[in-house]
Recover the amino acids of this structure.
């Protein structure tokens, strides 16, 4: 399985370079299935276009629009392969048999009917599948959430029993920090699924979170590598017992979330339940949550949601205020999260203190904190998050 991201198929030259690599793989005697993303920033442009046209964007129509991007890449790649004398057939998600639920713009894969792709392979043709899309049980086109082509690739790799799933992108692997923010970031040759999950969940968008979850569950060997240099990249592997674990493996950051505060809600059982049930019913993923201690029986609840869901989340929160209590709903999109991930944190106390000290020495205020056994996340002002990444990268000697 080979998946090519947006930059990797960004223009005609890039598409020809990818075709060349696919052709070479095929000529070496391997069967290959290709998943492509939309060219360059096509998906972003389509979203902007929709914003320019209307405030009302039914999920079904948004998905219909966004899936167009991947269709362009798949058809062009097949043409480039034809020129190299390689038979190739393009498939939309629906044609490839990727069946999802009907949660438009973030659908989940329910089932994959791989027959058509298997037949294509048997006929000696290379299936080229549009990433990021599927079809619901109601036969509507769906998308799998931003970055969803990674998930398509891993899911197909599982369904077809692929030997490996190669994720070709514009960096040469998974780094100790986003190399665009920290030029001294170092490429990791190997990383555990557990750490990769935390990296993906905390903003290291080199792999979509769902794709890592899927790969871990189905034991798919994942290899993240460059479609520009073709060098060996990062292998995502199962945790090996007795493996020496780095205290900190990577620093990540995420600017895709916004903070919402509901002020002065009564401090009694059922209030948080009422608020977060209403958000869950709108399929909004809540991440960090902070509730202050109450003094006069009232408390503020702050939480973060994806920026894309901010308007809906504010609306939902305002709707439940009459039932749960509370005075105001405040939205703050100007926040960002910096996180440290490392399996060795479990056995090395003091990482939290060092993290806070480092941020303090840069005069960076921490607004929210959350932790897992192998991650520490701090919410800070968006304007200082890159400085925070570099400071922590240096403090934990990751370069
Ligand atoms: P694609 O279009 O190939 O899917 P993405 O833009 O989704 O590519 O993901 C690759 C990008 O992820 C890189 O260009 C890099 O800026 C970013 N990134 C963030 N964190 C990391 C990290 N820890 N290691 C490598 N890349 C990272
Ligand atoms: N084109 C989609 C996006 O930009 C899916 C992907 O690239 O993985 O999110
Ligand atoms: Mg991606």
């Amino acid at each position: 399985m080979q998946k090519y991201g947006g930059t990797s198929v960004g223009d005609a030259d890039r598409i020809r370079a990818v075709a060349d690599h696919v052709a070479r793989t095929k000529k070496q005697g391997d069967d290959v299935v290709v998943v492509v993303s939309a060219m360059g920033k096509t998906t972003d442009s389509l979203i902007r276009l929709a914003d320019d046209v209307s405030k009302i964007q039914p999920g079904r129509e948004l998905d219909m629009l966004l899936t167009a991007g991947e269709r362009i890449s798949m058809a062009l790649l097949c043409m480039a392969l034809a020129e190299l004398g390689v038979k190739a057939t393009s498939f939309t998600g629906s044609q490839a048999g990727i069946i999802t639920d009907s949660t438009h713009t973030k659908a989940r894969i329910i089932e994959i009917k791989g027959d058509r792709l298997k037949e294509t392979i048997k006929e000696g043709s290379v299936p080229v599948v549009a990433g990021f899309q599927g079809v619901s049980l109601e036969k509507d086109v769906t998308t799998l959430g931003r970055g969803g082509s990674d998930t398509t690739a891993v899911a197909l790799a599982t369904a077809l029993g692929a030997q490996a799933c190669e994720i070709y992108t514009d960096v040469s692997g998974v780094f100790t920090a986003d190399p665009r923010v920290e030029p001294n970031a170092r490429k990791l040759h190997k990383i555990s699924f557990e750490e990769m999950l935390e990296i993906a969940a905390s903003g290291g968008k080199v792999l979509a979170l769902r794709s890592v979850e899927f790969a871990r569950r189905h034991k798919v060997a994942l290899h993240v590598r460059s479609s520009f240099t073709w060098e060996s990249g990062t292998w995502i592997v199962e945790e090996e017992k007795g493996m020496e674990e780095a205290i900190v493996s990577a620093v990540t950051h995420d600017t895709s979330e916004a903070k919402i505060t509901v002020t002065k809600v009564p401090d009694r059982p059922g209030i948080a339940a009422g608020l977060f049930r209403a958000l869950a019913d709108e399929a909004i993923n809540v991440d960090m949550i902070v509730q202050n201690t109450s003094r006069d029986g009232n408390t503020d609840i702050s939480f973060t949601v994806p920026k894309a869901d901010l308007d809906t989340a504010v609306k939902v929160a305002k709707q439940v205020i009459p039932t749960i209590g509370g005075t105001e709903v405040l939205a703050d999109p100007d926040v960002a999260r910096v996180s440290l991930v490392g399996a060795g944190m479990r056995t090395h106390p003091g990482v939290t203190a060092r993290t806070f000290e480092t941020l303090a020495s840069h005069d960076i205020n921490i607004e929210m904190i959350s932790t897992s056994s192998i991650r520490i996340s701090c919410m800070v002002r968006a304007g200082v998050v890159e400085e925070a990444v570099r400071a922590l990268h240096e403090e934990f000697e990751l370069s």
